[in-house]
Design brief:
By secondary structure, the chain is an alpha+beta fold. It is built from five helices and seven strands.
Length: 238
């Protein structure tokens, strides 16, 4: 009886191993599909730097304070706080400067106040740039066009990519006289190129002041924000 049970156990092990090996060796098709769509950005983030220099540290700091306040007040008049549009300082830098031509020699001080503006209306971008630069900002150090809410759009694009993966696998299988019978694995992801830097034309101080006074703005090409969904799938075939 014990020998018979041992024989059955041995046959069961062999059968289980054979089934696992057969399943492991079952054929499959791998496909990679992308679906993409362009959208209008819904948020713009701009960064401005106000930089001042002087031989006296107190004068350097006071000049920066005055120019920064002028920029902040001018830009505040253009933003809508009821729509969560904001302006804030993201960094402040104050340091002595040295010359090393004939040994280390203190030449003065530099202060840099960096402001970040977030606006919901991308059409105001050029006006805000010209206003900031004509009121004391020295440079635009950052410009981003962002699509804020992407979940619903990403879900639709991933569904589109998944359907494309299924159709592609079916066509490949049919061309080889076989057919898809199930999914081995599937991975999906979605991303955007939100950090789109626009090109804009810098004007001299007088021209910048004139365009701001006329209600115009620095020419800015907003462009589109592209969402991309990717589906990588393995389909069993027979």
């Amino acid at each position: 009886m014990k020998k018979l049970l041992a024989l059955f156990a041995f046959i069961f092990v062999l059968t289980t191993a054979a089934y696992a090996e057969a399943k492991q060796e079952q054929g499959y098709i791998s496909v990679n599909v992308e679906a993409s769509e362009d959208y209008n950005p819904t948020l713009v983030k701009l960064s401005f730097a106000i930089e001042t220099r002087d031989k006296d540290p107190e004068i350097t700091a006071n000049l920066n304070k005055q120019q920064s306040e002028k920029v902040i007040n001018a830009v505040k008049a253009l933003i809508d706080t009821t729509k969560n549009e904001t302006i804030k300082t993201t960094s402040y830098y104050f340091n002595p400067e040295y010359s090393y031509k004939d040994g280390r020699k203190l030449t003065g001080y530099v202060a840099v106040n960096t402001l970040q503006i977030a606006i919901k209306d991308p059409n105001k971008t050029g006006k805000i740039i010209s206003t900031a630069l004509s009121n004391g900002a020295n440079s635009v150090s950052g410009l981003e066009f962002i699509l804020e809410e992407t979940n619903d759009n990403c879900n639709l694009l991933m569904q589109k990519a998944a359907q494309g993966a299924k159709e592609r696998a079916g066509k490949i299988a049919a061309s080889m006289n076989t057919s898809v019978i199930g999914i081995k694995s599937i991975n999906a992801s979605c991303s955007s190129n939100s950090n789109y830097s626009a090109n804009f034309r810098m004007l001299n101080s007088k021209a910048m002041a004139d365009t701001a006074a006329e209600g115009a703005g620095v020419p800015v090409e907003m462009g589109k924000t592209k969402l991309r969904a990717y589906v990588n799938a393995d389909f069993y075939v027979k």
